[in-house]
Amino acid sequence: MHPDTPLVIQLQSLDLRVAALEKEVATLPKHVAAIEKTLEAHLRKLEADKGALSANQKDRKKLEGDIQIHEQKISKLKDQMLGAKNNEQYRAFQHEIEYIEKEIRAAEDRILELMAESEALDGNVKKADAALQQEKQQVQAETAIARERTAADQAQLEQIRTERQEAAAKLSPSTLRDYDRLRKKHHGVVSAEVAGGRCSACQITLRPQFFQDLRRGDQLMFCESCGRFLHYNPPVNVEDGTRVAM
After folding, report:
1. Which residue, among 245, 219, 178, has the nearest Cα to 1 in the 3D structure?
2. Helix 4-81 crosses helix 87-170 at what angle (to 10 degrees)?
3. So what's the pLDDT on residue 244?
4. Which residue from 9, 142, 225, 236 has the fewest beta carbons nearer than 10 Å?
5. Cβ 164 vs Cβ 157: under 8 Å
């Protein structure tokens, strides 16, 4: 195997780890933002339910006040009926009292409706409030985990980038140029193992002479199809652990 080949494989492994960590570091804030957005939506819903419950209570209180005013009017009208001078005046007072009593019955019916609505709204508020408290705790816990994970990833990234710099410095300039070119072209996967006489990346069968040259390991070899660095590991004898010549 060419001396640059292990370095290429190592560099590829380091770059793939860097890419994975960078992706995770970028994803964690998005995850936190998503759960916080959901929490905000639930909070707005709870505030809307509380607002509806408050409006319900205000409407009931107003209707109860209206009923009191109506009852006071009826009391006054009944007193005035006692001084009616004729049947026409008496019937006029009586009709007005009946109208106000009808208004009272309508208000009482509406109060009953509001009471039924209030029970449902109150139940929704209590359930939503309990769920929201639990959700807040969950968001806080997940946010703390995300921050710890990000800090750990950042520390690991710094270490891996240092290792990458050291590995890259050991490569010949021409090999490093080829590596960087292939990394951009193939999104990080620049080296492929030959197995069964095929490039494991593109699955193209190698020419027999090309395969023999690769086995000698005296030069860097590139797949004639996908252009990646190629490396070949001879099979291992399971009995004594030695490489089997092929």
Report:
1. 219
2. 170
3. 47
4. 236
5. no
pLDDT in tens, 43-77: 988 898 899 999 999 999 999 999 999 999 999 99
Residue 219 is classified by DSSP as S
CB 7 within 8 A of CB 135: no
Which tokens is 80 given? 């005035």
Q: Name the pairing type of β-strands 191-195 and 229-231.
A: parallel
What pLDDT, in 10s, does the model give residues 212-221? 999 998 899 9
**pLDDT number for residue 134:** 87
Q: Which tens digit of pLDDT belongs to each residue from 12-35? A: 999 999 999 999 999 988 888 888
CB 177 within 8 A of CB 8: no
Q: List the one residue out of 22, 157, 188, 199 whose CA is nearest residue 179.
A: 188
For the domain 15-170, what is the CATH code?
1.10.287.1490
- Measured in degrees and rounded to the nearest 5, phi and psi for residue 244 equal -95, 125
The DSSP 8-state label assigned to residue 85 in this structure reads S
- Which residue ranges make up each domain of the chain? 15-170
Please, what is the end-to-end C-alpha distance for the chain in angstroms? 14
- Using DSSP's 3-state secondary structure scheme, residue 235 falls into coil
Rounded to two decimals, what is the model's pTM? 0.62
d(CA 120, CA 50): 12
Taking the C-alpha atoms of residue 149 and residue 142, their distance in angstroms, rounded to an integer, is 10
* pLDDT exceeds cutoff 80 at 243: no
Q: Which two tokens stand for residue 42?
A: 């639930």
